[in-house]
């Protein structure tokens, strides 16, 4: 008679699948991650950082459509541009009216008062092998334009790259530092434990945002500097949890047996102790992911995060928060709502993982 026993991983996975909100949030995070990775394949403005704009198109409402003269360039599209955007985009000129005459395109630039715009011309010889219908193309801004006349949808999608990247990098850095120090402190104890615990208490006593600002100012403003600064402030909680777990696990009989067999301390820690204390670390990582997103957005709002023209949800809120009182609140609310969805998903996912990995339930 055979008995089918399930591993703890299979039991936890079954419990997780029964959590509707946890599974829903997991797939939302996967979907947002895929959208951010393949952003330049789907966004209307595929220039680098979606930074193509025209001041004549600033602050138009969602669904706004305008005719554009598209002047092609001889630059070849490389594979890398599909992932990081094109350095130089097609030269696009917004127009209010146009007509063709004698191999020449006459047009008036887009303006609130088109009658005051002078009539300009471009020889159609610049558009080799392009029909007249393709020279002038309608361009629809589905979420409108920002205060610089840039496509708001494109920058909103690209902003998810910053938030997800800061979460992954910051959590990775915090796990490397926190697990290493926590495992060493908990396993060896004594003076080493006291010294590491002293360092943990020092970092724990400093306000997180203040510490991030100090590290950012020391490393300078920039993309990677923010990642490192946030990651260096999130390892403390991981180290405390891992230390407590290691102190409890190292007294188990199978650890004593491993020492009796002559296994090295490194093997005992990495092969026998750490795999058995990863459950709370996974839950903390989900919460830290959400905290990292909020922290980066706060730094960008203060001007200490990612710098112009890199799109970031926090920076987009800073650029457009004045429009809350000027009749276009969606310019500031949409990035905030996107951030709310992503952070909420990570928090609910963390709660679902906590319940699934709880052996008492």
Automatic annotation (TrEMBL):
Pfam name, any one: OppC_N
Topological type in the membrane: Multi-pass membrane protein
Compartments where found: Cell membrane
GO biological process, one term: transmembrane transport
TM region positions: 20-43, 162-188, 195-217, 223-242, 273-295, 330-353
A single GO cellular-component term on record: plasma membrane
Highest taxon of the lineage: Bacteria
Keyword terms, alphabetized: Cell membrane, Membrane, Transmembrane, Transmembrane helix, Transport
InterPro entries membership: BP-dependent_transpt_permease (IPR050366), MetI-like (IPR000515), MetI-like_sf (IPR035906), OppC_N (IPR025966)
Sequence ranges assigned to domain ABC transmembrane type-1 in this UniProt record: 160-350
Signal peptide residues on this chain, from the entry's feature table: none
PANTHER family on file: D,D-DIPEPTIDE TRANSPORT SYSTEM PERMEASE PROTEIN DDPC-RELATED (PTHR43386:SF1), OLIGOPEPTIDE TRANSPORT SYSTEM PERMEASE PROTEIN APPC (PTHR43386)
Similarity field: Belongs to the binding-protein-dependent transport system permease family.
Protein's UniProt name: Peptide/nickel transport system permease protein
Organism: Myroides indicus
């Amino acid at each position: 008679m055979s008995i089918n026993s399930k591993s703890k991983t299979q039991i936890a996975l079954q419990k997780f699948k029964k959590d509707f909100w946890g599974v829903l949030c997991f797939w939302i995070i996967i979907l947002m991650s895929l959208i951010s990775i393949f952003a330049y394949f789907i966004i209307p403005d595929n220039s680098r950082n979606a930074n193509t704009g025209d001041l004549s198109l600033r602050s138009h409402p969602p669904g706004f459509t305008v005719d554009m003269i598209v002047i092609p360039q001889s630059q070849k599209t490389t594979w890398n541009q599909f992932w990081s955007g094109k350095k130089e985009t097609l030269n696009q000129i917004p127009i209010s009216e146009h007509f063709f005459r004698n191999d020449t395109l006459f047009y008036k630039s887009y303006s609130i008062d088109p009658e005051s715009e002078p009539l300009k011309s471009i020889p159609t010889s610049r558009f080799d092998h392009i029909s007249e219908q393709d020279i002038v193309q309608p361009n629809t801004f589905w979420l409108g334009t920002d205060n610089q006349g840039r496509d708001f949808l494109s920058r909103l999608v690209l902003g998810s790259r910053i938030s997800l990247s800061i979460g992954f990098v910051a959590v990775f850095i915090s796990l490397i530092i926190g697990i290493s120090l926590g495992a060493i402190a908990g396993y060896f104890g004594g003076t080493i434990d006291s010294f590491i615990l002293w360092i943990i208490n020092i970092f724990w006593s400093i306000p997180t945002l203040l510490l991030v600002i100090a590290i950012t100012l020391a490393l300078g403003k920039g993309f990677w500097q923010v990642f490192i600064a946030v990651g260096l402030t999130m390892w403390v909680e991981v180290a405390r949890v891992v230390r407590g777990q290691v102190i409890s696990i190292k007294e188990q009989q199978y650890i004593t047996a491993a020492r009796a067999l002559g296994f090295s301390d490194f093997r005992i820690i990495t092969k026998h102790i750490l795999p058995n204390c990863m459950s709370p670390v996974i839950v903390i990582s989900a919460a830290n992911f959400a905290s990292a997103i909020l922290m980066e957005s706060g730094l960008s709002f203060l001007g200490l995060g990612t710098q112009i023209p890199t799109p970031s949800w926090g920076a987009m809120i800073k650029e457009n928060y004045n429009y809350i009182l000027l009749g276009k609140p969606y310019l500031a609310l949409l990035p905030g709502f996107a951030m709310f969805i992503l952070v909420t998903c990570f928090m609910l996912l963390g709660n679902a993982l906590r319940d699934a990995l709880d052996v008492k339930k």
